[in-house]
Write a structure and sequence with these properties.
The protein is an alpha+beta fold. Strand 8 and strand 9 form a beta hairpin. The radius of gyration is 15 Å and the shape is globular. The two termini are 19 Å apart.
């Protein structure tokens, strides 16, 4: 296991996305067609993996961007795209947190998310934001299990979605907010770079 990989007890390994992961992650995104249809009205495209590298909202710093793979039994079962320090220094914006259909209901996604929230709290993050299509009940239920406050879509949505620009089709997205406290960091590694699979 490479040094930047974190193995979560009872859960997946969390590590940075590598170029050689792209074919497997592309298949994962294709498998998550239920999410993409709910969010954008169409299935994932081959270029969606590449677009992850460049998706960044106005004012955000690329230094805070983290692309992670959730790996179980030597294959990617999830992907995470998050930006720390945006839109405020103590905020983390999650643009994407997807778990493949074959891994849903196993607890792998919940364990990974709880780990990442704990580590983010240990690094000083106090607010995590995400979005979810209004009709995608799988994602809404997942966020609520993580104690996010899920809010209905805004009448006039903003120009960004999480940590990227909003596509024209993305109009019925719920906003989810989770406040983190010092207590949420209990058990965190509290070492710079550790929370997000070893990336700074």
């Amino acid at each position: 296991m490479e040094p930047s990989t974190t193995r979560i007890p009872g859960g997946p390994a969390v590590r940075p996305l590598r170029p050689e992961d792209e074919p497997a992650v592309s298949r994962l995104l294709t498998d998550c067609g239920d999410y993409f249809v709910a969010a954008t009205g169409s299935t994932a495209l081959p270029a969606d993996v590449q677009s992850l590298y460049y998706s960044l909202p106005d004012g955000a710093d690329f230094a805070g961007k983290h692309l992670l793979v959730l790996e179980h039994e030597d294959r990617p079962v999830g992907v995470v795209d998050a930006v720390e320090g945006h839109p405020e220094p103590v905020t983390c914006s999650v643009g994407l947190f997807l778990v493949g259909p074959h891994a849903r209901g196993t607890g792998l996604g919940l364990r990974a998310a709880r780990y990442l929230l704990r580590e983010a709290a240990g690094r000083g993050t106090r607010r995590v934001t995400a979005t979810c299509p209004e009709g995608w009940t799988t994602g809404i239920a997942f966020l609520r299990r993580l104690d996010f406050d899920v809010r209905p879509p805004a009448p006039e949505p903003s120009a960004t979605v999480g940590n990227r620009l909003r596509r024209p089709q993305e109009r019925r997205l719920c906003t989810a907010v989770r406040t983190l406290t010092v207590e949420d960091a209990d058990g965190a590694a509290a070492a710079p770079g550790r929370a997000w699979g070893g990336t700074p």
